[in-house]
Amino acid sequence: MKFSGFPEPGELVIGRVDEIEDFGVFVDLEEYQDKRGLVHVSEVASGWIKNIRDHVNVDQMVVCKVLEVNQGSEQIDLSIKDVNDHQRSDKVQEWKAEQRADKWMELAFGEDMSDEQYAAVANELLAEFGTMYEGFEQAAIHGPDALTDTDLSEEEVTAIVETARENVSVPYVRVTGYMDLRAPGPSGVEDVRAALRAAEGNGEVPEEVELDVEYVGAPEYRIRVKAPNYKTAEHELEASAERAGESIRTAGGTAEYHRERRSDEE
């Protein structure tokens, strides 16, 4: 995605060196539509510059700080030397992340999606999360709930969530489900305890997965799963619920699994 309009003074931008002259470097701004800036030779590097081509090359990707913008003449003055190593690294990573998000948009809505739809969806993600990448990442972690405060349609939310869960790598995801466990007779309490032990896995849960079962309010119990990815988390959540249900039904009780809490919040 490329922005229309102009960057703001003080903003960090990423660009590709298009032309080198003795007086400076012309840079095509990768994030802005049809925008080009000039890095004066005095802003290329600190100290005296004998040969500007010793510092930059044509087609080189550079991170620049915007010094001044004259929209009337479409002149954008840039500086390379005013960007430190930390800022440069962060900006490059941010740009690469947005490039990935741009690909995910194509996967979610197809290569033939209109510019208007792309802009509408992208603007919703930018307004809510600051970047499209963050929007997809949150959708991968939290599912449709992450997009509740946007004006995206149900179909758009579904497309984003499904694409995010298939393509976004996140440090971990958390999912939650609930079980209603009921056991009649004098051994009911012990039968429920046995079902809870079964839900916790009896040592069968993979090492990379954290699974916790806790009491919410009779007869409801919460199952929380933390896993490296959404697919694994959902699988372990459902497996936990199945183990608990099988255990309690074998003892003559009943089990009901649901994703939303029913009891009053504590």
What's the tally of helices? 6
Spatial ordering of strands, largest sheet: 1-2-3-5-4
Strand elements, count: 9
The helix/strand class is alpha+beta
Q: What global shape is seen?
A: elongated
The CATH superfamily of the largest domain is known as EIF_2_alpha
3D structure, described in words:
- This protein has 266 residues and is of the alpha+beta class.
- It folds into three domains: 12-83, Beta Barrel (OB fold (Dihydrolipoamide Acetyltransferase, E2P)); 86-167, Translation initiation factor 2, subunit 1, domain 2 (DNA polymerase, domain 1, Orthogonal Bundle); 173-258, 2-Layer Sandwich (Alpha-Beta Plaits).
- Helix content is 37%, strand content 25%.
- It contains six helices and nine strands; from the N terminus they run E-E-E-E-E-H-H-H-H-E-H-E-E-H-E.
- The chain has helices at residues 85-109, 115-129, 132-142, 154-167, 188-199, 230-250, and strands spanning 12-21, 24-29, 36-40, 61-70, 75-79, 173-182, 210-217, 220-227, 254-258.
- The strands form two sheets. A five-stranded mixed beta barrel has the order 1-2-3-5-4. It has a four-stranded antiparallel sheet with strand order 7-8-6-9.
- Helix 1 packs across helix 4 (154-167), helix 3 (132-142) packs across helix 4 (154-167) and helix 5 (188-199) runs antiparallel to helix 6.
- The longest helix has 25 residues, at 85-109.
- The radius of gyration is 27 Å and the shape is elongated.
- The mean pLDDT is 91.
